[in-house]
Every structure is written in structure tokens, then in C-alpha cells.
Amino acid sequence: MTFITAQEAVKAVQSGDRVYVHAASMTPTILTDALTDRASELSNVEMCHIHTYGVAKYADIQYKDSFFVNSLFVGANVRHTIKQGNGSYTPIFLGSMPKAILNGDLKVDVLLIQVTEPDEHGYCSLGTSIENIHAAAETARVIIAQVNKYVPRTFGDSYIHASKINYFVENHTPLYAFAMPDSTKDEITIGNYIAELIEDKSCLQMGIGSIPNAVLANLTNHKGLGIHTEMFSDGIIPLVKSGVITGEHKGILKGKIVSTFADGSQELYDFINQNPVIEMKPTSFSNDPYKIAKNNRLISINSAIEVDVTGQVCADSIGTNVFSGVGGQIDFITGASMSKGGKSILALTSTTNKGVNKIVPSLKQGAGVVTSRAHVDYIITEFGVAKLSGKHIRDRVKAMVEIAHPDFRESIEREYFESIK
């Protein structure tokens, strides 16, 4: 294995290429920065990725003639590109992304990844983010890898052989790490409600954030829980160590924690390093509803930006302004609906930090419906639990009004029924 500089490696990128960038805590910023430095030599290079961390220099409007950002899930560091015109958003289920890459809809020309040093057999680990990397590697003309000793070596489908990589760049930098914020009083209440719906021997899907952490904090007395998710963070560590999470009742990969991302603190990265309990999988596996459904009592826990009183869920935009992405919400809601004893839960506080109502008579104009009202099972706020599955519209409206903020309940109900006259 011969190392070259990042500047030398990214010379392989040509104008008109689609460049796929490793996501989340594995974002190879040294490579994207070096590529940005070549802006004056390039035109119409598409930077494609899920959410990435760090400063995305290529997303600066000054480089609009050189780089266009195609976000499969919009992160904070590139959100501005949609309004500025040097970027856009591709609505797509997380589990469908590898297929779109392989069938040519999103064919990758150059792949930028971050990996461990090769083991004695020549295999590098993709660490904390497997996502769509294997599919991208199959179509890429060139693969460039940052080799970093700080990347944890994970198990599962986490490996790429060094012989597949065209250029190696050595740069040893700690991964992007962060601590979860403390849950608010309302989030803790929501966490309590969700925990009451989780039975022993259930298998959980949840993301990262203060509501998932509040849920996990309430599961210390549960038994035999499993994890099949797309993402996890520090909150699972004490439950694994205490024996609450064992995976012994899972229907697929029994005893394993299945995920495609892991983001959090350095403690989390240390926990997953060389840990055979962690099974990292591509999104085509982790987010396959048929595989998800093989786990009995699959509990899917997701969030929303806004929900109307009939159960339509907006989770990717604020009106027409794209905020995040479709992600894996429908993948897991579908899987939960097919799982024996499964439940799907949408959790959100009833208002924003600024007091704006999230339970509404109708979604904002231009809002994206990620989850249809036909998919919804439970919706939970700090004011209670609304079980919508099997309910007709009038009963749904009543249930949703009851979990809305008291200041808005009367107006929500009045506006909805006036709108249908």
C-alpha cells in the first residue's frame, strides 16, 4: 500500500463526474477539502451523499460552477444549497439507495471513503458508516480512501479489500464525535409513554437524539430486548452492559445489534471497535422491510416535523423548505406493520421551541408527506398517545386534538371541520 497526498489523489476526479462521499462520522473531509481546492479546474461535478459532518467547503456558493450538491438526506452543512441553487434533494427511501446506484439512476464515478488500516488479510473496515458504500464501490471508476487509525474496526458487511482501492491517503484524525443533549421535561414524558408500549422481548428501531435517549433511559427494567435499526448512539451502551439488550429473541441475526450507522461520543466508537455483537450492514439489508419484519414485536420509533389531524406525517420539510430527508421512516414502519406484534410510533413535541404548533388541521403548503395516514399506527406527544390505526377520520381528529397543546386544541378542531364543509 502506497500513500499519496490528498491533493494528488483527487486529481482523478474529472469534470462531469458524480462523486459519492462517505457519510456521517466517517466523512473524509481531508479529501473533500482537497477536491474543493481544485474548483478552478473543474465544472459540473456532482457531490452526492447522505448527511455528512464538518464543513462542506464544496457547498459554498462561490463554487457553484464547479460543484453541485445532490443530497439524498439533507444535513445542516449543505442545507443552504437548496435555496441558493447550487444543490438539490433527491427524495428516496434509505433502503432503496443501493438499488438506485447499481441500476444507474445514481451511478457513481468516484467514491471518497474513510477506512481503517488494512488487517493481515488486506481488508479495511468502513467503521461506523456502511450505508451505500458497497453499491457505490461496484460502479465507481475510482475509489479514494483516507486511512485513519482512529476508525473503529466493525464487524458485519463492513469490509472492503485494499485491492479495490485505487488511492490511499494517510490522515489520522479523531472521528466527528458529539454528546447527546439532555432530554427536556416534555421529551422525558414522551419517552415514558413510548416505553410503556414496549414489551419484553421486543426488537427496537430508533434514531439518535433526545427522545430516543429518553426512551432508552426508561427501559432499564425490560428484558430480552433486541436492536435492528438504521442508526444508534450512546444510549444503548448501558442497556447492553446491564443485559437488557441481548438480542436473544430476534428472528434474524439473533444476538446481534444490526445497524448501518453509529454516531455519538468517543465512548461509543470505543464500544463498537472489535465488538462482535455489533453487525454493521448496508442499507439494502438494515432497511429491507422483509428482513425487518422477521423480528417479532418490532417497534419502530421515528420523529416528525408536523402531523395533520388525519395522520399525514411531514418529516422532511418545513413547507417547501427541505430540512432533512425521507430516510428510513417508511422502511421501518412497513417492516413493523408486517412484524408479528409490531408497532410503529411517531413521536414529537406538540410545539416547536418557539411555540409553533406541530399538530395542525392541514400540513403547510408544499410540505412533503413522508408517511401517509394509511401507514400511521401511534402518534405520541407530551400530552399523550393517539392510536390511529383502524380509526376513521373523525375519530382520528378527536384523538389528535387530545394530544395537541391545550392552547391550540379548540382552533385545530374548528379549522379542520370548517375546511371540509
Automatic annotation (TrEMBL):
Q: What is the name listed in the Swiss-Prot or TrEMBL entry for this protein?
A: Acetyl-CoA hydrolase/transferase family protein
All copies of the Acetyl-CoA hydrolase/transferase N-terminal domain together span 5-172
Q: Which Pfam families match?
A: AcetylCoA_hyd_C, AcetylCoA_hydro
The protein's matches in PANTHER family, at most eight in alphabetical order, are given as: ACETYL-COA HYDROLASE (PTHR21432:SF20), ACETYL-COA HYDROLASE-RELATED (PTHR21432)
* Similarity-based family: Belongs to the acetyl-CoA hydrolase/transferase family.
Gene Ontology molecular-function annotations: hydrolase activity
The Acetyl-CoA hydrolase/transferase C-terminal domain covers 264-415
Sorted UniProt keywords:
Hydrolase, Transferase
